[in-house]
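Re: beginner question about structure tokens

> Can someone show what the tokenized structure looks like for a real chain? I only ever see the sequence side.

Sure, here's an example I had lying around. Input first:
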Amino acid sequence: MKTTIGTSVLLLAISLTGSALAQGNVTAPPQPPASATGHEPPAQAYTDCQGKKAGDAVEHTTREGKVAAICELSPKGLVARPKHARPDAGTAPAK
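And the corresponding structure tokens:
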């Protein structure tokens, strides 16, 4: 009898899970924050756009020096996005 009750409970659980999935009641897992994925801009990118507006041109300060950038809106506020990729960012030199 134990096996029959255990099997019935298992089948009921599977049935309810399938029903919830079919009705769309299951939500997608939360996305990790940008900092967890390694795509968070450095703090300096936000500092470079303080007092600016979206679309303003700025010089973004990096470890390698200053680069031309544009202030863009982000979920955390205005952030400097470089206009061109750095030469060492994995782009092949032109031949």
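Each token stands for a local structural state, so reading them left to right follows the chain. The chain has a mean pLDDT of 73.
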